[in-house]
Amino acid sequence: MHAYYFDNLPTDQRLPHITDPARPVSPEALTKLGVLSWVVPVDGHEGGVDEADDDFEVNRVAKERGYKNRDVINVSREGMGSVYEEKIRGFFEEHMHEDEEIRYILSGSGFFDVREMPTDAWIRIAVTPGDLLVLPAGIYHRFTLDTKDQIRALRLFKDEPKWIPHARSAGTDANAHRVGYLRDIGAGIAPAVGA
């Protein structure tokens, strides 16, 4: 996993978008934003993760964080068929969730972009097989594939599998999960009255 500031140039979202000079972001800086990560080798788990394997780090993290359900998503033209273009556009729209987003990359590669607080700058996180990433509820983020156009990931859920994006707006700025997230990271930012 490699994190750095996004260059904001209006080119293909699937390109790395590394600033010149590069401005890397440390794991400690991500942790301050509530973003957690591990590297867990995929060897032998490319097809998925056996829930009964208590020694496997992904299962340990899932149990520790209260994840009871899981599925595997194949984000590619072949895996998504006719909804591929629509889904890719939707994934790259800035949004938040009211639940943590946890992904374990089984194959392929892509980028998660998260908003740094309080600067509101984009931080790009490049993910490859073996990366386990947790984005906290309430963080503004987006996702895109890289130019290889394929990623396969294990998704973990506390309850029934769901993925409900809330597009950034005055309403999401005032959402209890967003406000709680800002409080938890010590951003000290409150939504505008009446927003």
From TrEMBL:
Q: Pfam families from the entry?
A: ARD
Gene Ontology molecular function: acireductone dioxygenase (Ni2+-requiring) activity; acireductone dioxygenase [iron(II)-requiring] activity; iron ion binding; nickel cation binding
Q: Which residues bind Ni(2+)?
A: H95, H97, E101, H141
State the Gene3D superfamilies in the record.
Jelly Rolls
On the tree of life, the source organism's domain of life is Eukaryota
Q: At which positions is Fe(2+) bound?
A: H95, H97, E101, H141
Which transformation does this protein catalyse, written as a reaction? 1,2-dihydroxy-5-(methylsulfanyl)pent-1-en-3-one + O2 = 4-methylsulfanyl-2-oxobutanoate + formate + 2 H(+); 1,2-dihydroxy-5-(methylsulfanyl)pent-1-en-3-one + O2 = 3-(methylsulfanyl)propanoate + CO + formate + 2 H(+)
Name the UniProt key words of this record, in alphabetical order.
Answer: Amino-acid biosynthesis, Cytoplasm, Dioxygenase, Iron, Metal-binding, Methionine biosynthesis, Nickel, Nucleus, Oxidoreductase
Q: How is the cofactor bound?
A: Binds either 1 Fe or Ni cation per monomer. Iron-binding promotes an acireductone dioxygenase reaction producing 2-keto-4-methylthiobutyrate, while nickel-binding promotes an acireductone dioxygenase reaction producing 3-(methylsulfanyl)propanoate.
Compartment(s) of residence: Cytoplasm; Nucleus
**What is this protein's record name?**
Acireductone dioxygenase
GO annotation, biological process: L-methionine salvage from methylthioadenosine
| Pathway per the UniProt entry | Amino-acid biosynthesis; L-methionine biosynthesis via salvage pathway; L-methionine from S-methyl-5-thio-alpha-D-ribose 1-phosphate: step 5/6
Keyword Disulfide bond, does the record have it?
no
EC number(s) per UniProt? 1.13.11.54, 1.13.11.53
Species source reads Mycena sanguinolenta
Cofactors needed by this protein, per the record, are: Fe(2+); Ni(2+)
Function comment: Catalyzes 2 different reactions between oxygen and the acireductone 1,2-dihydroxy-3-keto-5-methylthiopentene (DHK-MTPene) depending upon the metal bound in the active site. Fe-containing acireductone dioxygenase (Fe-ARD) produces formate and 2-keto-4-methylthiobutyrate (KMTB), the alpha-ketoacid precursor of methionine in the methionine recycle pathway. Ni-containing acireductone dioxygenase (Ni-ARD) produces methylthiopropionate, carbon monoxide and formate, and does not lie on the methionine recycle pathway.
Q: Which family does it belong to?
A: Belongs to the acireductone dioxygenase (ARD) family.
Residue ranges annotated as coiled coil are none
Q: CDD domains attached here?
A: cupin_ARD (cd02232)
UniProt key word Nucleus: yes
Q: Which GO terms describe its cellular component?
A: cytoplasm; nucleus
